[in-house]
Amino acid sequence: MRLTVLSGPSGVGKGTVVAEVRRRHPEVWVSVSCTTRAPRPGETNGVEYHFVDVEEFTLMVKKGELLEHAMFAGHAYGTPRAPLEARLAEGVPCLLEIELQGARQVRAGIPDARFVFLAPPSWQELVRRLTGRGTEPPEVIERRLDRARTELAAESEFDAVVVNDDVTRAAARLVALMDTD
Ligand code: 5GP
User: Fold this and answer.
1) What is the best residue among 72, 105, 116 to mutate for testing ligand 1's pocket, by most ligand atoms within 8 Å of CB?
2) Going by CATH, does the domain composed of 3-179 fall within 3.40.50.300?
């Protein structure tokens, strides 16, 4: 099985680590998810995400076109099934970067995939990253920290843990865990 699923708490830097994998390891195919959230500045449709509206997303779910899907911060996210299955059939090493609920769905459907948890160097560091911008009201920050606590507790469900102390090293460790030969 050449499928690796990277998950971990919000704020741990999954997106940055995956961007580093994309840059340094073109042999790894990174799945492009669908989301109903709006593109951020610098994001391009079809590159970081396929940006879709709620109707399109609902239709994809109904037709069974998503391998997994979940809500995160008020928006829907999901992994298109067909492109991933095509790459896996070709024997290409594939990487999904998804939140915890989605990772659990993939585990239920594809138990022999490799599940990697990206962990912060410490709880203090995660708190710093989640509160870093200092622009959010305290109750929003408290909600995020609550969620982070629950997400961190899921570490033991995973096959391997990569600590994101340094992006380059974390990306190298992740690729080393993937079946890329
Ligand atoms: P962001 O909006 O910051 O890009 O992503 C928010 C969260 O959604 C992150 O934790 C990211 O890993 C997760 N995510 C991105 N794509 C998917 C997906 O296809 N499925 C699931 N379940 N989560 C996703």
Assistant:
1) 72
2) yes
Does residue 94 have a pLDDT over 90?
A: yes
Per-residue tokens: 149: 């606590």
* Whole-structure pTM value: 0.93
Instruction: List the one residue out of 156, 163, 147, 31 whose CA is nearest residue 97.
Output: 31
Would you say 11 is a known binding-site residue?
yes
Task: Quickly list DSSP for 121-177.
Answer: S-HHHHHHHHHTT--S-HHHHHHHHHHHHHHHGGGGGSSEEEE-SSHHHHHHHHHHH
Distance CA 149, CA 10 (A): 10
* Rounded distance between C-alpha atoms, residue 178 and residue 123, angstroms: 26
Q: Which residue has the higher pLDDT, 73 or 63?
A: 63
SS3 110: coil
Task: Provide DSSP, 59-100.
Answer: HHHHTT-EEEEEEETTEEEEEEHHHHHHHHHHT--EEEE--H
CB under 6 Å to ligand 1: residues? 10, 14-15, 33, 37, 68, 70, 72, 77-79, 97-99, 101-102
- The model's confidence at residue 144, banded by pLDDT at 50, 70 and 90, is confident
